[in-house]
Amino acid sequence: MKKAYVFLYIIVIGIVISMPPAYAADGKALFMSKCGSCHRTGGEASVFAPTKCASTQWERFFEAGKHARIKDISSLVKPDESAAIKEYLKAHAADSDQPEAIGLK
């Protein structure tokens, strides 16, 4: 009986450790807070919405590290946050089932 509890405990701990942080799922909030500092009206970068690109274009943008060529944002956006932002942009891209034209204003 004791072995069963130990086994169950190990499985639960493994699941919890492998789960991403809770905030990573909220790509929209990260997009608005992290990207918004530059991509707002009056900011130093152009205002844009997820529908600016198709989902494959967002994928290529992040894979190629294109933002790093323009401005290094690694101190502002952590890799897991960047992944959540990418998934949000892809999920609401121009060719998605739920395009979102709301940008940073």
Query: Radius of gyration from the CA trace?
Result: 18 Å
- The secondary-structure class comes to mainly alpha
H-E order: HHHHH
From the N-terminal CA to the C-terminal CA, the straight-line distance is 59 Å
In short:
By secondary structure, the protein is mostly helical. The protein contains five helices and no strands. Helices cover about 50% and strands about 0% of the residues.
What do these coordinates show?
It is a single chain. With 105 residues, the chain is mostly helical. The chain has one domain. It is 50% helix and 0% strand. It contains five helices and no strands. It has helices at 2-18, 27-35, 55-63, 66-70, 79-91. Helix 2 crosses helix 5. The N and C termini lie far apart (59 Å). Mean pLDDT is 79; it is low at 18-24.
Which SSEs are present, and which pair or pack?
Elements: H1 2-18, H2 27-35, H3 55-63, H4 66-70, H5 79-91
Keywords summarizing the entry:
single chain; 105 residues; mainly alpha; 5 helices; 0% strand; globular
